[in-house]
Amino acid sequence: QEKITFIFDESNALGPAFLERMNALLAAGEVPGLFEGDEYTNLMSECRASGMQGLDDAELFARFTKQVQRNLHIVFTMNPANPDFYNRSNSSPALFNRC
Fold first, then answer.
1. What is the pLDDT of residues 77-88, one digit of tens each?
2. What string of DSSP letters covers 55-70?
């Protein structure tokens, strides 16, 4: 269980769609619809291969998202003087209360 940190600067990665996905990831440990079809099946197979046998897919995915929440760290650098700062804080609250 490797810990990973991503660092994002507002000047290169904070468009509305990106912020929406990061907000969902921080709030729930997942991005809805990120894993579908074969990707979801492969993820479940990888989880089982890593020692999570005997669980149904919903339980596996719940454990996976908990591991994401424990091991993924995200750092955003934002300038509060930026005119978009207030809008970002209102539209993506998890960026401010889960980081």
1. 888 888 888 887
2. --HHHHHHHHHHHHHH
